[in-house]
Design goal:
The protein is mainly alpha-helical. The longest helix is centred in the N-terminal third of the chain and has 28 residues. It has 16 helices and 14 strands. The protein starts with about 35 loop residues before the first strand and ends in a 50-residue tail after the last helix. The strands form six sheets. It has a three-stranded antiparallel beta sheet. It has a three-stranded antiparallel beta sheet with strand order 12-13-14. The protein has a two-stranded antiparallel sheet with strand order 1-2.
C-alpha cells in the first residue's frame, strides 16, 4: 500500500522451494515502483509513459511486478536474439561488442523522462507558456523573420506578451517561403507514431534536456533501437525552430543580452525547469549565433527520413528545414555560399574560438545544403532544391580552396596560432553525408588523407593511441593547447571519427581509434569510468562531465558497419562539382538499399512498446 508523507513502510518477501540433491532451482523476485507523474520545477507535471498501459494509480506497481515475473524470461530471450548477431560476429573485436551495448546505460541513467502525451497532467493545467508558436496556424508555409540579439536599449524582450506577429514589421531580414503539401509541425494523430515525448539530459552535470549539438552524436543509438522516439525528438525541435520566446536573457561569456529563443534558430536544448516551454537553458553564449545547430538539425532530419522512409515525418518537419537553412544566410556575409564563424566559440566546442571559415561548421553546412536539396526534391520543391544546390556548389569550391592544405582541412581560415591545427572532428559533415546515403562531400582521396592524418596525429601521437583522439593537434605533432577543449579527448567525437573512418573503408584505423576510449575508460587498466563515461579527459586522465550523452555515438560505428540499413535512395541530381574526378561513393556498388517495412524499436519488439 502507498505510504503517507513522512511514513516509512518496510516489507520482507520469502519463498520456499524443494531442491533435489545436485539439483538447482531459481527463485525470481521482482521490485517495482509506481510513480505516475513527473513534475518540473516551474510547476508543470506530466503522466509518465507507462501510465498509458497501467494507469495512474500508485497501486499499478502490483501489475508491473506481475508482468515482469510473468514475462522476464521472454524478455531475456528477446534481448539475446537482439544482441547475438553482434556478439557472435567474429569480425568484431571483443572490446567493441562489450562497449557498444554497455554505453547504452545512458539511455536510462541519463536523467531520462518519458511522458505519455503533450498535455500536462491536471494539476498543472493552469500554467501557461509564453512562447509564440507559428505552427498553430493552418498555413503550410514557413515564413521566418530573424531577430538578431538585442542590445541593452531594446525593450521588446522586457515585455514577454509582445509576440512575433506584433513586431515583424520592425526588422528587415525576411526569409523565403518554402512550400510543401504538409500539415504544420506538431503532435501526430497517427497511433503508429504515438510514442509520447522523450527527454534525456546532456549529462548529470550539465542538466539541460536533449542538448541538440550533442544529440547530433548520440542520436544514432535512438535511431537504431527506438526510431519512433528519435522522430518524436526531431518533431519537437522542428516545432521549436518556428517558435520564438522574447524573454530577455543575459549571456555570461560576452556579458550581452538577447532573447531566449530566436525564431528560425534551432535551440541549444529543450530547457531545464520547464521543458518544451522554456527552451535554451544554456546561457554561456547566444546560441542563436552558433553555426552548427541549424546544419545539425537539417542533417539529422534528413538522415532519419532516409533511414525510416517516413514521408509523413518529412512533410511535417520540412517547413522547419527550410527555415533553418534560410536563417543561416545572414552568416554568409560575402555571398560565396559558405557560412563564416564570428571569432568566438560559436559551436559545440564552446571554449574553442573560431575565425572565418571553419572545417567543422563548414563541412556541416555543406552537408546540410546537400541534404536539404535532396529532401526538397523528394517532397517536390524544385525551387528550394535549386537554391541549396547552387549554394552547395559555390560553397564547396570555397571550402576546399580556403582550408585544404594537401593533407587535411585546416581548423579555420584565420591567422591565429591554431588555424592550421588538425581537428579530429573536421569531417563531421562527411560522417552524416555517408550515414545518409548521399554522395561524398569531397573526393575519396581527400577524405582518406584527412582521416589518415587524424589517425596518425590525433590518435597515435597521444599515448600510443590508447586514449582516443585528441580534439586538436598541431601539424608539428604537439597537442593544441589553445584552450581546455582543444587539448581534451572527447569520447563521443572519437567514436564519431571512427564511424567516419568505417564509412571510408578504413576499418582497421577506426577500431584502433575507438579502442582507446575502451582502454582508457572501460578497461581494468584505465581510469575507472565504466558506466559513467565522461564527455572527455585529458592526457593525464582527468575527466570533465561524468555520465554524458555524446558517447552514445558509438552506435554511429554500428550504423556504419551494418549492411542491411534501410536507406532512402537519394534523387539523381547534380549536387556535386564532379570535376576533375568522379565521386567516391560511401556505399557499395550495389547502391543504397530499398525501403523496407517501417522500422520498429527492435526487429522483434523486445519490450513490446507501441512503436
Amino acid at each position: 500500500m502507498p505510504s503517507s508523507p513522512g511514513e516509512t513502510h518496510c516489507a520482507a518477501v520469502s519463498a520456499t522451494a524443494w531442491v533435489e540433491p545436485h539439483g538447482k532451482c531459481t527463485v525470481a523476485f521482482s521490485v517495482a515502483w509506481s510513480s505516475p507523474k513527473i513534475k518540473f520545477c516551474k510547476g508543470k507535471s506530466y503522466n509518465r509513459r507507462y501510465t498509458k498501459y497501467y494507469g495512474t494509480s500508485k497501486m499499478a506497481a502490483k501489475d508491473l511486478v506481475h508482468d515482469s515475473l510473468t514475462n522476464y524470461m521472454l524478455w531475456e530471450e528477446d534481448i539475446e536474439k537482439w544482441q547475438n548477431p553482434v556478439l557472435r560476429d567474429d569480425g568484431l573485436p571483443e572490446w567493441y561488442k562489450f562497449t557498444l551495448f554497455n554505453e547504452l546505460y545512458f539511455l536510462v541513467a541519463g536523467g531520462t523522462v518519458w511522458i505519455d502525451s503533450d498535455s500536462p497532467a491536471e494539476n498543472s493545467s493552469g500554467i501557461k507558456s509564453i512562447i509564440t508558436d507559428s505552427t498553430k496556424s493552418n498555413k503550410t508555409e514557413a515564413s521566418i523573420v530573424h531577430r538578431s540579439a538585442l542590445n541593452g536599449s531594446d525593450t521588446s524582450a522586457d515585455d514577454p506578451s509582445r509576440s512575433a506577429s506584433e513586431e515583424e514589421g520592425e526588422e528587415s531580414d525576411t526569409f523565403e517561403n518554402c512550400t510543401v503539401n504538409s500539415k504544420p509541425v506538431g503532435p501526430t494523430n497517427n497511433d503508429d507514431d504515438d510514442v509520447g515525448r522523450f527527454l534525456y539530459l546532456e549529462g548529470v552535470e550539465y542538466i539541460m534536456w536533449c542538448t541538440y549539438d550533442v544529440h547530433f552524436y548520440a542520436s544514432f543509438a535512438l535511431l537504431e533501437l527506438f526510431p519512433q522516439i528519435e522522430l518524436s525528438i526531431q518533431r519537437d525541435f522542428a516545432k521549436a525552430v518556428l517558435s520564438e520566446d522574447t524573454r530577455k536573457v543575459k549571456f555570461l561569456a560576452e556579458g550581452n543580452s538577447g532573447i531566449r529563443k530566436v525564431k528560425g534558430a534551432v535551440p541549444h536544448d529543450l530547457g531545464t525547469h520547464d521543458p518544451w516551454h522554456e527552451m535554451n537553458a544554456y546561457n554561456i553564449h547566444d546560441t542563436s549565433r552558433w553555426k552548427d545547430l541549424n546544419p545539425k538539425f537539417v542533417l539529422q532530419v534528413y538522415r532519419d527520413f532516409a533511414a525510416t522512409g517516413n514521408l509523413s515525418f518529412a512533410a511535417q518537419v520540412y517547413p522547419a528545414v527550410c527555415a533553418a537553412i534560410d536563417y543561416m544566410d545572414q552568416f554568409d556575409r560575402d555571398n560565396d555560399g559558405l557560412i563564416e564563424n564570428d571569432g568566438f566559440p560559436d559551436q559545440t566546442y564552446d571554449t574553442w574560438t573560431v575565425h572565418g571559415i571553419s572545417a567543422y561548421c563548414g563541412s556541416l553546412w555543406l552537408a546540410a545544403l546537400q541534404a536539404a536539396a535532396a529532401m526538397a526534391l523528394q517532397l517536390g520543391d524544385q525551387s528550394f532544391a535549386d537554391k541549396c544546390t547552387h549554394k552547395f556548389i559555390k560553397g564547396k569550391a570555397v571550402f576546399e580552396e580556403k582550408l585544404w592544405n594537401g593533407e587535411y582541412f585546416n581548423y579555420d581560415s584565420g591567422s591565429s596560432g591554431n588555424s592550421k591545427s588538425i581537428q579530429a572532428d573536421q569531417l563531421a559533415g562527411q560522417w552524416y553525408t555517408a550515414a545518409s546515403g548521399l554522395p561524398d562531400l569531397f573526393s575519396g582521396e581527400k577524405i582518406s588523407s584527412a582521416l589518415q592524418k587524424i589517425y596518425d596525429f590525433n590518435v597515435m601521437k597521444v599515448r600510443g593511441g590508447r586514449m582516443g583522439a585528441v580534439n586538436g593537434m598541431h601539424p608539428n605533432g604537439k597537442v593544441d593547447e589553445t584552450c581546455m577543449q582543444s587539448r581534451e579527448i572527447w569520447t563521443g567525437v572519437t567514436y564519431g571519427a571512427a564511424a567516419t573512418m568505417i564509412h571510408a573503408g578504413m576499418k582497421e584505423q577506426a577500431f584502433a581509434t575507438a579502442e582507446g576510449i575502451f582502454t582508457a575508460g572501460w578497461s581494468e587498466e584505465g581510469f575507472g569510468y565504466a558506466f559513467q563515461t565522461p564527455e572527455g579527459w585529458t592526457m593525464d586522465g582527468h575527466f570533465r562531465s561524468l555520465i554524458y550523452m555524446r558517447p552514445l555515438s558509438i552506435w554511429g560505428m554500428q550504423w556504419a558497419l551494418s549492411t542491411s540499413k534501410t536507406i532512402l535512395k537519394p534523387p539523381q541530381i547534380n549536387l556535386m562539382d564532379r570535376t576533375p574526378h568522379t565521386v567516391n561513393s560511401s556505399h557499395n556498388e550495389a547502391g543504397v538499399k530499398k525501403i523496407a517495412a517501417k522500422a520498429k524499436c527492435f526487429g522483434n519488439a523486445v519490450f513490446h512498446c507501441s512503436c
